[in-house]
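W.,

You were right to be curious about this one. When I first looked at the sequence I had no strong expectations either way, so I just let the prediction run and decided to look at it fresh. Below is the sequence, 748 residues in total, followed by the output.
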Amino acid sequence: LPRLVREFVAQNNTSQIKHVIQILSQEFALSQHPHSRKGGLIGLAACSIALGKDSGLYLKELIEPVLTCFNDADSRLRYYACEALYNIVKVARGSVLPHFNVLFDGLSKLAADPDPNVKSGSELLDRLLKDIVTESNQFDLVGFIPLLRERIYSNNQYARQFIISWILVLESVPDINLLDYLPEILDGLFQILGDNSKEIRKMCEVALGEFLKEIKKNPSSVKFAEMANILVIHCQAVDELIQLTAMCWMREFIQLAGRVMLPYSSGILTAVLPCLSYDDRKKNIKEVANVCNQSLMKLVIPEDDEVDEAKQLMTLPAEPTLEESLSKPEAASSGESLSELDITALNQLLFFLCSSERIQVTLNLDGIVQVLDCHLHDTSIGMMTRIAVLKWLYHLYIKTPRKMFRHTDSLFPILLRTLSDESDEVILKDLEVLAEIASSPAGQTEGHGPSDGSDARPGAVELHVPARAGQLSSSGTKGLECSPSTPTMNSYFYKFMINLLKRFSSERKLLETRGAFIIRQLCLLLNAENIFHSMADILLREEDLKFASTMVHTLNTILLTSSELFQLRNQLKDLKTPESRNLFCCLYRSWCHNPVTTVSLCFLTQNYKHAYDLIQKFGDLEVTVDFLTEVDKLVQLIECPIFTYLRLQLLDVKNNPYLIKALYGLLMLLPQSSAFQLLSHRLQCVPNPELMQTADSTKPSAGFKRVTSSNIDYTELLQHFEKVQNKHLEARHQRAGRAEQLDRRVVL
């Protein structure tokens, strides 16, 4: 047969050559008899060897019948087919590349063949074909990718190993740019990464690592956007290797592509945020996820807050050319070579410089807020995830306040509920977000005001909100007044105060355990005067008198003991300004819900005569154990450093008679207790006025002289105190009556 074929080649008799190949194919290789098929395969291989370099002209006729035998049920015959195709390919070499897809398809099936001899034969043929592809520069990658994309989803281990081996080969060929088609196969690669075989996982890990190296070297040719969602899916994989690898890729994508990744922020956050609460068993994933989260957050800039009804796309600014960047005198004089530059910064620069088109990027704020809101509602998420969510919200309110305030009404309830979180860190971050909402000028924009009627307030004691640089609309400032010296508070501030007090009222445990902590932190984040002014104003109209008394007691304790309120205490101590007197009157009216706190406020503001007048009224009140306990606590407070000035004023008996009378009044209220002994000993130290007389005793004492508080009607304040206490007395009687009726029903 070879001699006959060579004669036909010498005679250039192509028709006879085709006739011989046709007989070998139809009558032998495709015969029903197995021995005839074996003979046909041997004959086709011999024919190819005889044709030599001319075999490329007849490859289709030679290959097709051999490939058909790959599906034969007889394993021996499949081995003969491998051997025949090996000889055909070995002779034809580069001429077989136009038929590469059918060869690859056949080989991918043989790679999973159960017969070891067939598998061994297919591996020899596979290596030969790889050598040919590596040597050639005519490989049709575009035509091959659809087949690769289809075969990469095979579940067979051997087929997967075959696919990965070919990807590694193609990736190593300089003339073949597989990176352009990475979006087509990336999902399949991550699927293979989850294979049960350690060897296959390792091979796939190597392939992905090579691709990532190539991406870092040539970010300008990478289709980041087309692969972003693929990474988002696999960043949520159950398999730890898949998740870690996808997260590492995501980290590099965010750092290399920059704002190109912004449209996919909601998906990225969905994948990244839960990982931040992983324990040490998944420490690596947690660390990479944290970097992703931080890098993504930095991509949000103030320009994203541009308001446009058409939701205009943000266009990245034009970058200087590479030549301009590298020819700057600073770079030349620094003495640093290009290899010493920060590789990440250089890659990002190259990516933007090599882009022929200006990249349009838009921040999908609605999607981001929806993801953050869902995570806050999910009670099963970890503490670090909740903190990260709150950091994101705070960051968005700082960078994009106008757009964020569109979502404030929907976010506000869950932010308030988060104040009940078990973690102090979560509460601190939550308070930062709420404080930013309450103080941001963007919150005063028309149409974003509070919707619960919180601006319907009486004009007697009001909070004033001064405009800031003309940014605020006057539409939301109705009924909100305070001293001009305080910082701007928008229309959400008063809404926040109302809802915070409602939360304290409905969750007494929150008030007891975290109330002081929350209010103290708010005094650091916002203006303390505004907070106390507004809360006092709200409590003045509180219908639950018992809660009002408890809340006033809490606020008073904070006012008298917290270091955060040092400045506010000094402001109230002298009542020198109209603003401080206005604040005192506002606090006093609400402090009347609790008699003892009212006296302590008078002590703080050095209104000793009024304190004495109030104590005189205590004889008409119902003295309970709780009442005496509060008097006891007040005595303890008087001995604290905060009231040092008060104790020193006891030396000036002549100018402070009502202070001494007030203290004696408290002493008379107390039973024989430790507090009684403490105050009694203190009063015993008050000097005899005659012994304290000096040559200057006829002159008023400059050190202890009380500045008369003008414009304060103390008679009206005293009447208000009596009115409020009558309400409390009536409420206690009603509660006692209801309790008695309930007891009777139980007895009946």
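Here's what jumped out at me. The longest helix spans residues 714-747. And, maybe more interesting for your project: Residues 567 and 736 are 42 Å apart (CA to CA).

Coffee later to discuss?

I.
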